[in-house]
Every structure is written in structure tokens, then in C-alpha cells.
Amino acid sequence: MHYSAELQKQMLQLARSAIASHLNIEPLISCEAEQLNENGASFVTLTKNGNLRGCIGSLQASRPLQEDIVQNALAAAFRDPRFRPLTSSELPLVTIEVSVLTEPEAVSFNSTEELFSLIRPDVDGVIIEKGYHRATFLPQVWLQLPTHPQFFSHLLQKAALPEDTPLTDLTVQRYQVEKFTEH
């Protein structure tokens, strides 16, 4: 997966346009690019003054990438339960990042050490699952949580699992992203 600079720009414009349209600032734009009509999974991350302001995404490619970006931009701006809905006065202060995910792949491991050896910091995003508990961190999260123990400890917390849950009890998948940010 590789997106041209022009296509990256279109995806960022699409995400911003979806939010602006919802706020009745401007009409929603559409993109004609063929690659955006293929099914894709994306995350849209909003930051304000360098701080997280919303982040919602899809782990599976189940709808056209264009639609996935629009829906995740709206969800990140208005339905992320960690934040109040974005206001029109905040929109100019927000930076948008779009991450397009590869298909998640199962990771087979027999020990915590083996798991850590199979997950590459700054490269792999991780999905953990146990029963009804599920959580993911994008590869970008390694910047804040640079060690495997930190990364997985916070991932367990995000999944609402006890911090002493053995990692060998989890189903683990990894994926990579191509990400682009507004300048």
C-alpha cells in the first residue's frame, strides 16, 4: 500500500470536509480517485495544541476507504467518548491525521518474550482480544509508550483487562499503517 502525495492530500481534505460539513461550515467534498472507492480501514486522529482531541477508526476493511475516512472523521470529532463534541471555533485549531491500515495478521507466540520479539516498535499496531475485551494501539502510540511492557500494560488497561492478565492468554494481531498529517 502506497498513496501518492496527491491522494494523501485528498484523504486529509476529505476528513476535514466531513467535519466542516457536519458543523454547517461548508458542503462535503467528494473524491473521484479509484483507490478511495476500494474497501479500506482507517483511523482519523485529531490533535489540538499537540494533545489528543479525538481518535476513532476501523480495524477491518468493510466499506470504501472514502466512506470509512468520512465516518471515522465524524466519529473522532463528535462521538469519541473521551471528549466533548468538537465545536466550529475549535476546527481551525485542530490538526488531522489519517492512518490507513493493512489487513491485521494473527501473531502466534508461546511466551511473553516471544510475543515481544514479534512486535516491532514504531512499525506494528497491535490488537489484543480476550473474551469480550478488545483494544488496539496504532504504531504511533510507541512514541508515548516506547517499551513493550509499557505498551502492552496500557493496552490491557484500554481493553479493561486486569494489568496482571498473562499476555499468553490473549489473542494478538498486528498491522501496519500508512499515515499522513496536515501541515
Automatic annotation (TrEMBL):
Pfam families: AMMECR1. SUPFAM superfamilies: AMMECR1-like. It comes from the Bacteria. Residues 1-183 form the AMMECR1 domain. This is AMMECR1 domain-containing protein. Coiled coil: none annotated.
